[in-house]
Write a structure and sequence with these properties.
It is a single chain. The chain has 729 residues and is α+β, with helices and mostly antiparallel strands. The chain has four domains: 29-54 and 553-725, Sandwich (Jelly Rolls); 66-258, Beta Barrel (Lipocalin); 289-385, no CATH class; 388-548, Jelly Rolls. The chain is 16% helix and 32% strand. The longest helix has 16 residues, at 29-44.
Length: 729
């Protein structure tokens, strides 16, 4: 991907990158210098070029054991006591949570029948009755959306590691003095609920009674998802949940002396859509071509999207017919967040209404197949990806793999890649080749001057293991740095995020390398669950000699100021305290950026640090065009609580053009877009960048003031425009 393109030009003396216009006039020399430093710090501080993080976080569909779990047994110790054992075939535990799915509010429900436990009833002294430990298999939780189930199991419940939840009652109020057959008794049950190894107290409102050989208990409670680190869940514009969930426990327990029927479990998780050969609508004639053309390239085995959904055979499609219908109808897939409000864009991935209708009718018919379920789903030979393929003239890699650790969840590591250029050379294409997709969050590619070779080698040598720690750009602890925090002589020229195509530069253009120049690639690793050794590579398409047009990238930034809601009280709701915390985490350069951007954009904190009635904060900034030329790529970037993004050329004039409009921001898909028609930037043009953020999307249980910073939990309003500077002007 071009971040929006490749290369950064030499700047004329005194030029201030991104200088705004249309607000108060002159600035002091000190202010110009500070603004210049701040903007460059922003360039170096792209901690995220954009990621698919939520979608790609290793959510494979796995076979789930439907066996009923074991639970500790209760024992009757005196006459009048009877032990009843929960019958999983007639019991369930259900969650209900408010969900905004594809813009529509509904209640999501998931249930499991993997429930075990004992109930001891003491008829002689009902107050001595007990509810034993109830064990619940959360891995078996099943809803009406199979992809939802896979995501919840893997990312939020982490059920492969913690398949069982435990409910341990500590007190039962409301037990009667005498138990009557058929009567129902209201109870209040105090208990500890353990999920993912975390135990929290809850209170269940219940009703219980004896019906023949059964004890029946119906109970419910409301819990905060954040107490167990489960939510609230946010998957960009596709789905998000509320903060609360209702737990409903409905069990029937049978006298252990009577024995229990065979308990195979619910079996619902593994249910396939019915495979009906030759039924209508035709999968082969209508659905399969759409999937092969639009989905297979990313979701086939070995591709970046495999971790979200593996599309290998027709059976994979039929299994998830319900979920495919939802993500396609909502236009969440194929990913194309840009709206038609902006200028026409090349290579649009949006499905037509007719194609969406075909998939919806097939899915609602039960996902029937008129092909063998093992039929492979593969992209056509003339797939669009061929347009972006590059030659691998040089494939570079670190000398040894990097071994990170889950003790450092967000790990920024730099690696030197030396193409060993001996003469003037042009790079005409890039492809970053991640080794361990589940942990490689993103990568930034810097071109580094030959004059810095010894300094980079010193950084590499001083830091044990492959590469060196480098939070800002290419610099490491103790290295000679510019005021931006990155090594002097390095230029950000490209970036990669999961699912990204190779970087093919426009025909006749490239990035110039002088003899001895090399690359440093900063990789952001996210070691949430595992830390496998990684040896990612960089492939280059190159041309020796000649003269090409240069591709130049400029950044256009705006402040990010998202205060706490009125009434929220926490130490980090104070802006100064929040910025002090940024200094502690990221150093003084990071803490200078928020105030610097406000100054740069001629804004005031009072007008920016405001939430509307919906908890939305907004920001914007006008900039003079930095480098004139033909636009070849535009990029917008925010983090997880972004709501909208817009980039406008010459706003409020007859020449106004919306270069990029994203009405529903999606952190998972941050793409570089290329205008379909030629647009030339002039020195007098103005670029306006506008962002908004939604506090309802914050998942942390502890409120804090959010401002511009590196962390995924912080925010940015960041954009780039890449231009082609043609020879001769």
């Amino acid at each position: 991907m071009l971040v929006g393109g490749e290369g950064m030009p030499e700047r004329s003396p005194g030029h201030v990158e991104g200088e705004p216009i249309g607000r108060a006039g002159g600035r002091s020399a000190a202010r110009r210098l500070f603004s210049f430093v701040v903007v460059l710090a922003g360039v170096a501080a792209i901690a995220v070029v954009g990621t698919w993080w939520w979608l790609r976080a290793s959510t494979p569909s796995v076979e789930v054991s439907m066996a009923v779990p074991d639970a500790p047994r209760l024992i009757a110790t005196r006459p009048g006591q009877t032990v009843y054992r929960i019958d999983a075939t007639r019991s369930s535990v259900t969650y209900e949570v408010e969900e905004i799915l594809a813009g529509k509010s509904n209640t999501a429900r998931g249930s499991t029948s993997g429930v075990a436990g004992d109930i001891l009833v003491d008829r002689a002294d009902p107050s001595a009755s007990q509810l034993g430990e109830v064990v619940i298999n959360v891995e078996q939780l099943t809803s009406d959306q199979s992809l939802r189930d896979d995501r919840i199991r893997h990312d939020f419940l982490e059920s492969s590691e913690y398949p069982l939840a435990h409910l341990r009652a500590s007190r039962i109020d409301g037990l009667p003095a005498r138990i009557s057959e058929g009567a129902r008794y209201p109870l209040r049950i105090e208990a500890d609920l353990e999920v993912k190894g975390v135990s929290k107290p809850i209170v269940l409102d219940a009703e219980a009674g004896i019906e023949g050989d059964d004890v029946v208990v119906n109970a419910r409670t409301t819990v905060q998802l954040a107490d167990w680190g489960i939510g609230p869940i946010s998957l960009g514009p596709l789905a998000r949940t509320g903060r609360d969930a209702t737990l409903i426990i409905d069990v029937r327990a049978i006298d252990e002396a009577k024995g229990l029927p065979y308990q195979p479990g619910s079996g619902a998780n593994g249910r396939f859509a019915e495979l009906v050969m030759g039924s209508d609508p035709s999968f082969a004639a209508t659905v399969q071509p759409i999937l092969e053309r639009n989905c297979a390239t990313c979701h086939n085995p070995g591709q970046a999207g495999e971790s979200a959904w593996r599309l290998d055979t027709a059976a994979d499609v039929a299994k998830h017919a319900d979920s495919i219908d939802k993500v396609v109808e909502s236009r969440y897939m194929p990913p194309w967040p840009a709206s038609p409000v902006g200028v026409p864009l090349m290579h649009e991935r949006r499905l037509s209404d007719a194609e969406i209708g075909v998939i919806a009718r097939w899915a609602r018919a039960g996902g029937p197949l008129d092909v063998d379920p093992s039929t492979p789903i593969r992209p056509p030979a003339d797939d669009l990806e061929q347009t972006f393929s590059i030659r691998h003239d040089r494939v570079l890699a670190p000398p040894e793999p990097y071994q990170g650790s889950t003790g450092l969840t967000n790990d920024y590591r730099c690696f030197a890649y030396d193409p060993q250029v001996q003469e003037r050379t042009w790079v005409t294409g890039f492809e970053f080749l991640p080794d361990q997709l589940p942990v490689v969050h993103h990568a930034l590619v810097f071109k580094v001057s030959a004059s810095l070779r010894s300094q980079v080698e010193a950084l590499d040598t001083a830091d044990a293991g492959a590469g060196w720690h480098c939070f800002f750009g290419t610099a490491g602890p103790g290295g000679e740095q510019s005021p931006t925090g990155r090594t002097r002589g390095s230029e950000l020229i490209a970036g990669w995020v999961p699912g990204q195509r190779p970087n093919r530069l426009p025909e006749g253009s490239g990035i110039k390398l002088a003899p001895g120049d090399f690359f440093v690639v900063q990789v952001h690793y996210h070691f949430a669950h595992e830390a496998p050794p990684d040896r990612s590579q960089l492939a280059l398409e190159m041309q020796a000699g000649g003269v090409l047009d240069e591709i130049v990238t400029n950044t256009y930034l705006a402040p990010a100021e998202i205060p706490c809601r009125s009434g929220e009280k926490a130490p980090l709701c104070d802006r100064n305290a929040a910025i002090d915390e940024l200094t502690r985490q990221f150093g003084p350069a990071a803490s200078a950026i928020p105030d610097g951007l406000i100054m740069l954009c001629r804004r005031s904190l009072a007008e920016l640090a405001v939430l509307d009635a919906d908890g939305v904060a907004r920001s914007g900034c006008d900039h003079r065009v930095v480098t004139p030329g033909e636009i070849v790529g535009v990029l917008g970037h925010e983090h997880q609580i972004g709501r909208t993004f817009r980039m406008t050329l010459n706003p409020g004039t007859p020449d106004e053009k919306v270069l990029l409009d994203i009405p529903s921001w999606d952190f998972n898909w941050q793409l570089v877009y290329r205008p379909r028609d030629r647009i030339d930037l002039k020195p007098t043009d103005v670029v306006r960048v506008e962002c908004s953020w939604d506090r309802d999307l914050i998942t942390s249980p502890v409120p804090r003031y959010v401002t511009w910073a590196e962390g995924t939990e912080d925010e940015m309003c960041y954009s780039t425009i890449s231009v082609r500077v043609r020879r001769g002007g």
